[in-house]
Amino acid sequence: MERLKKLGTILVNKNVLYSLYDDLKQPQDKISELERKGLIIRVKRSLYAISPKIHNQKISRELVANHLYGPSYVSFESALSYYGLISEKVHTMRSVTAKWHKHYYTPLGHFEYVVMSAQYYPIGISREIIDNSNAFLIASPEKALCDKIVVTQNLQIRSVKEMQKYLEDDLRIDFSAVRNFDLDIIRQCAEVGRKKGELRLLLKIASKAPQVKNLRL
After folding, report:
1. Are 108 and 49 in contact, with CB atoms under 8 Å apart?
2. What does pTM read for this prediction?
3. Residue 153 pLDDT level (bands cut at 50, 70, 90)
4. Strand pairing class (125-130; 134-139)
5. How many CB atoms lie within 10 A of CB 56?
6. Tally of CB atoms within 10 A around 18
7. Which residues are registered as beta bridge partners of 41?
């Protein structure tokens, strides 16, 4: 299994697997055998993950999300949980894409992709490196929260007090953490994203009180 072990935790397509066994007359039969034995996991058609049985490492669902459908970045509750800003367990790995809304139900979990505009999409994306070699794209804490607010249906927040209640009671986010947010990212989201009023209220909360009067809202 050393051939598979060299691939590590990244997702690979069928051609990569074929190339590992190009010394065999029927490499496709070998791929089918590996899948039956649970040594490779089919995530979607022609896309596979190497089983932890081979590399003894946890498969990063964030990394899978990036490779499963792109361009995309991990966001919403998935990113907030990754940063430790919410305590609830997140079952669906949710991402933002610039293409089409998608759902994938895989052996590695449920993955959802939500469309955002081309102007809004690139704001506040971070690159996280794992295993000293692989990397995935994820929303910064500020962008993840903005994304969550933007896509939540029937969310109508009209005051700073209501926004604080939403953050603390509905999302259960530590209010003190919000005050450390990068204001420029929230400001950019408010300029080009939907729900501008709600995002401006978030900006006020994230700002220090003396700075609120000087904000151009």
Report:
1. yes
2. 0.88
3. very high
4. antiparallel
5. 8
6. 14
7. 49
